[in-house]
Design goal:
Blueprint lengths: L5 H12 L21 E3 L3 E2 L8 E2 L7 E2 L14 E3 L4 E4 L2 E5 L4 E5 L2 E4 L4 E4 L2 E4 L4 E4 L2 E4 L4 E4 L20 E4 L2 E5 L2 E5 L2 E4 L4 E4 L2 E5 L2 E5 L2 E4 L5 E2 L4 E3 L2 H4 L9 E3 L1 H4 L3 E4 L4 E4 L5 H5 L3 E2 H6 L3 E2 L1 H9 L6 H14 L9 H8 L13 E3 H5 L8 E3 L2 H26 L15 E4 L48
Antiparallel strand pairs: 1-24, 2-27, 3-29, 4-12, 5-31, 6-9, 7-8, 9-23, 10-13, 11-12, 14-32, 15-18, 16-17, 19-22, 20-21, 25-30, 26-27, 26-28
């Protein structure tokens, strides 16, 4: 069998599944494409929040956009999907792109559902000032009544009360919890990290109706979560053309994108790719290490990477040095589009640029035998089931929007006269069972306060810290 250079493999896969736009840009879509529908595959942009969600300790309403979002693109499931008993297709959504002053499409994802969680889809809603996105999140699967609370107080800059039992532990920050009609502070604790799992600490999510508390949970490590597809920029005809549908065939290499990851708290999204210019920092883009160190939030992906390199004392410094180098040297940044990446990999210096190759074709990935994700061809019955589930997700999304935009949010106050509000919601169409789901290992137990879980023979030495009030 003749072996192709990786560049040719990528280009041939794109050609096999794509149309070429009038502007000469390669695209990644298949069924029901019209020649006048133009689009461009991007190798940077927001990360689908069902794949990786940002954790902010200071949640706030998201930015209001003056232009209305387009009607959602009809997606068809890709030809390959990850093996597993609880892998589902979660459809994409529109996101605002500041550079183009227009919307781009965040492609759907194949997602191995975190054990014991259900997906609460985000949505766009009209406001008196414009259009606003409310973020999705992974809730406990047993949640049926959603609780909406007043704005929580500012988080306490809490230092660990004791040293870590071993390098295997990381600090999980404390959080405010609603008790007896008011907020009380729950101290942080040490969490023993696991090779195949990311710890997501307790946090709040803003909604038009109030703030929702999400208890801490374990998620799969980013390389085991599923398949993340590249975002796409469509022209306006894609949203109005009858019968138009799109099936992504360009995937994002998570081993590479983690090196080019940013947080944007006001948008409550991860962003990947080239956002290194100083102007992006002025509009709220923060590199992963900077966001994590700022104590404004928690980055589960960066925390896991730092733990994985816990025996390398220079790793964090090298991470910062690499970022600074890319900021100052545009040639060291990853391409912004698939066409630019293909041009890069066709150049003579390709062998020295592998760390910049963010995307590859789904067809190529299906032939790869390495890594924790193994792809298999989707059979017709699976495609039918996933299509039905996608429709259910859209309906659930509409139900949530109607529920949360019809009620007034509680005032931001800690007064005992302010009470929480509750609302019943049906179970999400995307939910994961507790315990092992098609895995050889089960998720770790929920962490406990280290004051009650000090390993035998290891003293828990206290460190000075300011007292934290139990209530406000």
């Amino acid at each position: 069998m003749k072996h192709l250079h990786p560049t040719l493999m990528l280009a041939s896969a794109v050609t096999a599944f794509a149309v070429v736009c009038a502007a000469g840009q390669p695209a990644a879509a298949q069924s029901h494409i019209s020649a006048d529908v133009q689009f461009e595959v991007l190798t940077r942009g927001p990360v689908h929040e069902a794949f990786a969600g940002a954790v902010s300790f200071e949640p706030q309403p998201s930015v209001v956009i003056g232009k209305a979002p387009p009607y959602p693109i009809q997606e068809t499931t890709p030809d390959y999907w990850p093996a597993g008993e609880n892998v589902v297709w979660i459809p994409g959504y529109s996101a605002w792109d500041d550079d183009q002053e227009d919307y781009i499409w965040i492609s759907g994802v194949w997602r191995d559902v975190p054990p014991g969680r259900q997906w609460i889809s985000g949505y766009w809603a009209n406001t008196s000032a414009g259009h606003q996105w409310t973020n999705g999140y992974w809730a406990d699967v047993e949640t049926t009544d959603f609780v909406y609370l007043p704005q929580p107080p500012q988080v306490i800059d809490e230092q660990p009360r004791m040293v870590a039992p071993s390098p295997d532990y990381i600090w999980s920050p404390g959080s405010w919890v609603w008790r007896y009609n008011r907020y009380a502070w729950r101290p942080g604790n040490w969490v023993r990290m696991q090779p195949n799992w990311d710890w997501v600490p307790a946090h709040y999510m803003w909604t038009p109706r109030g703030y929702v508390f999400v208890e801490g949970y374990w998620d799969y490590s980013v390389d085991r979560r599923g398949v993340l597809f590249a975002p796409v920029r469509f022209n306006s005809l894609a949203y109005i053309r009858p019968g138009f549908s799109y099936s992504p065939v360009t995937i994002i290499n998570v081993d590479v994108f983690s090196d080019h990851l940013f947080m944007r708290p006001r948008y409550s999204h991860y962003y990947f790719g080239d956002y290194y210019e100083d102007r992006y920092r002025t509009v709220g883009f923060l590199p992963a290490y900077s966001y994590h160190q700022s104590r404004r939030g928690y980055d589960p992906i960066y925390a896991h990477a730092r733990w994985r390199h816990r025996h390398d004392p220079g790793w964090e410094r090298q991470f910062e040095v690499s970022f600074s180098y890319r900021r100052d040297n545009p040639a060291a940044r990853p391409p912004r589009t698939l066409s630019a990446q293909i041009h890069l990999t066709s150049s003579s210096g390709y062998s020295n640029q592998k760390g910049l190759v963010v995307a590859r074709s789904l067809e190529e990935a299906s032939r790869s035998q390495g890594g924790p994700i193994r792809l298999q061809r989707v059979d017709p019955q699976v495609r039918k089931v996933q299509a039905t589930r996608s429709q259910d997700v859209r309906q659930y999304q509409a139900q949530r929007r109607a529920l949360e935009t019809a009620a007034q949010a509680p005032e931001a106050s800690a007064s005992p006269s302010v009470t929480r509000t509750t609302a019943a919601m049906p179970a999400s169409p995307i939910a994961g069972k507790r315990g092992t789901v098609g895995r050889t290992i089960s998720p770790p137990d929920s962490p406990t306060d280290i004051r009650r879980a000090v390993p035998p023979g290891q003293p828990a030495t206290r460190q000075p810290t300011k007292a934290a009030p139990s209530e406000i």
